[in-house]
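Notes from hallway chat w/ T.B., transcribed later so I don't forget. T.B. wanted the structure written out for a chain they're using in a teaching module, and asked if we could keep both sequence and structure tokens in one place. Agreed to drop them here.
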Amino acid sequence: MLNGAVAFDAIWIQFYNNYCGLQAYVPGAATQNNFNFATWDNWAKTVSLNKNVKVFLGVPGSSTAAGSGYVPVDRLAGIIAYVKGFSSFGGVMAWDASQVYANSGFLGGVRAALGSSSTHDNDNDECPDDVDECDQDEYVDDEYVDDEHDEYDDDRSRR
């Protein structure tokens, strides 16, 4: 699948429990010999069918979330700053939510490292108070989808 046979929109790479994980990142080094986000960026630009595929940095949410590869959020912030320099960078994935929740300050540190673009602005949200009461009609692939009436379009499956 990674040989270009499938057009991915995003991939979530586990940068822990392996030798090329977060612990291999060398702050300030011109070339990262083992931390291989650059390899994934190259794959995104040269092999992937979708040249706009986003690569997510997979991190353990606490020291007990993975066998190896956890780094404290202050060190992770430097790694995030580095990977933000790649056009394929899509964001951060953490394993798992319960570990992040128990790791005080971790999520806030990741959010700060990602920058203000990761904040949610409800000003344009049509239904911020009760999503269940919202009309769920939407556009998918530039085509209108009416969830209330379960419409079909073209040869596509039910939306």
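Follow-up for T.B.: The domain at 10-118 is CATH 3.20.20.80 (TIM Barrel). Might be a good example for the class.
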